[in-house]
Amino acid sequence: MSITTTEKQTSFAQTLIQEKIFIPPSAPRASSLPWLPPSWVPYGELARLHKPAGILYIYFPYLFGSLFAACISAEVPSPRQMVLPNVLLLSIAFVIRSIGCTWNDYVDRDLDKHVDRCHVRPLARGAVAPSAALLFMMAQYFVLFAFAGVTAPESLPYLIPVVLTGTFYPYAKRITHYAQLVLGISLSMGTLVGCTVTGVGAIDFSSPFQRTGISLLALMASYVVWTMIYDTIYALQDLESDKKIGNMAMSIKFEENMAQLLYFLSVVMVVLLITTGYFMNASAFFYVFVAVTGLILYAMVSSINLDDSKDCWWWFVKGGLMIGSSLTGMLMVEYLARAFL
């Protein structure tokens, strides 16, 4: 039986797909967001609406800033007074996360085609045109600054550095092994937004012995370190793909000493949390949760199988939520102690 030209082309295309040299565009995956019209699904995926748990990683520093502000206020706000600021902060964090995901996918659209975990993203699979993605992102920016400008105008000076560092992050993976540090700095600035929205003005850093400023800086630095920990674990899923396409990350830089790095960063994070508590004159309740955070970090680093992408994903998700909950509890008990004791 002779083989037709069409059959040869089909066979050649299948070979390219199998070798991940080319990944064909696909139709919108309506099953990922069944409540959206099919034509909207790729944009919902760009904003990661199908992965809502990820919003917590962005919201945590905003929440920490809010709780920190409540703790240091001359008149500690009541729980009822804390609700509205945190609704605003959660909304801001939601939009910022959507913008960040859209921008990251736009910048990485050609590289994602060659990464197993990422080739189904809307831009990589051809479900959204690059120009349409940029327009979508511009609309998100408009929503962010319009919403923040109306509801929390005092936050705008702090949102600008969040946006600038977040914009640089996808490019950092191409020029430095420390892109996780850039991401951590970007996310940690949400702490300042949380402080201002909750009613605390600009923190005075003019004196090196200003206790509130030192405490806040230590808190922000602890979140930078925590981001470096969890995002490095996240990046281990793509270790081999990143090597092939030329991405740079701490997961590559410290591949042979990964456990030692994670232990070191965990110790640094705990020291920074202790520093935060010391300079804000925290109660014993605060340090109980610092100890819990340290135990979770130890359990994570000692238990994780760094060569198993599924285990890395489990600890990224579950470990991240455990640490985030512990840090929330740390500041929450301090706030409640100051409000009611």
Structural commentary:
- Helix 3 (55-72) packs parallel to helix 16 and helix 14 packs antiparallel against helix 15.
- Residues 1-28 have low confidence and may be disordered.
- The chain is globular.
- By secondary structure, it is an all-alpha fold.
- The chain is built from 16 helices and no strands.
- One of its GO terms (biological process) is ubiquinone biosynthetic process.
- One of its GO terms (cellular component) is mitochondrial inner membrane.
What's the structural blueprint in terms of helices and strands?
Layout: H1 5-18, H2 41-46, H3 55-72, H4 79-107, H5 109-112, H6 122-125, H7 130-151, H8 156-175, H9 179-188, H10 190-197, H11 211-235, H12 239-245, H13 250-253, H14 258-279, H15 284-303, H16 309-340
The CATH topology comes to Tetracycline Repressor, domain 2
Mean pLDDT: 85
Tally of separate helices = 16
Given helix and strand content, the structural type is mainly alpha
The geometry reads as: globular
Succession of helices and strands: HHHHHHHHHHHHHHHH
Give helix % range. Answer: over 70%
Strand content: under 5%
User: How many E strands?
Assistant: 0
For the termini, the CA-CA separation is 88 Å
CATH class, please? Answer: Mainly Alpha
